[in-house]
């Protein structure tokens, strides 16, 4: 069986290129274009293919690895692989642009909804707060202030935080505004208009300040982690250098000992020569 396999392999290597078949399209090489003998571990007919077929096949794969011998084909056209890489880069760039456009579309879609929800929430709260004392006249105060506060709160939320945290930030702003509005109007007895103005400035100011403090804390934490990582890397490098110095010193001492063993009394050795 071994001899038969060797004979078969030799026969397959001796097949003329005109009679061989392309390993990719299974059409005779004489009927196609230029023949490419792939420089990998494949032998005989397995290494022969149409150059155009090989270019298309390895372009689809995106690498140089042969499917039969699992080795890299060394004589593939370089321009092909560069073209493939350029196409991949363009595809990734187009995908990133598409994702950015989708994110912008989502933001533009969420902001109008946030504006309407904020206006409705502020209107309900102000109407409930003022209707007990002002009666029907509460509508004249709550409606314009609700529109202004809803629009302002939505603009601040979309500007200060990312798209994932817009609703959480807007809810936090709303909670602060209604809290201080209740304190100024019900507890301190401030007039309705001034209560709304003071609560708006206070609530928006506190939310903006807390957001800025949180951002600065996260930046400081990131810088601290980076410094600790760099310090650990420098310590590891110093330890590696110290170990290398100790090993070099040990080798030097060992060499000195070997020299002393080979020549235990250099003075006597010099007298003998004299």
Structural commentary:
The chain is mainly α and 274 residues long. Among the domains are: 2-76, 2-Layer Sandwich (Herpes Virus-1); 110-225, no CATH class. The chain contains seven helices and two strands, in the order H-E-E-H-H-H-H-H-H. It has helices at 2-13, 51-61, 78-134, 138-160, 166-187, 192-262, 266-273, and strands at 35-37, 48-50. A two-stranded antiparallel ribbon has the order 1-2. Helix 5 (166-187) crosses helix 6 (192-262). InterPro entries: Znf_RING-CH, Znf_RING/FYVE/PHD. It comes from Zingiber officinale (Ginger).
Distance between the termini: 77 Å
Order of helices and strands: HEEHHHHHH
Sheet with the most strands, sense and barrel status: 2 strands, antiparallel
Which structural class do you get from the secondary structure elements?
A: mainly alpha
Total strands: the figure is: 2
Count of helices? 7
Helical residues, percent? over 70%
The radius of gyration is 40 Å
Task: Point out poorly predicted stretches.
Answer: 1-13, 269-274
Write down the overall geometry: elongated
Spatial ordering of strands, largest sheet: 1-2
The overall pLDDT, averaged over residues, is 75
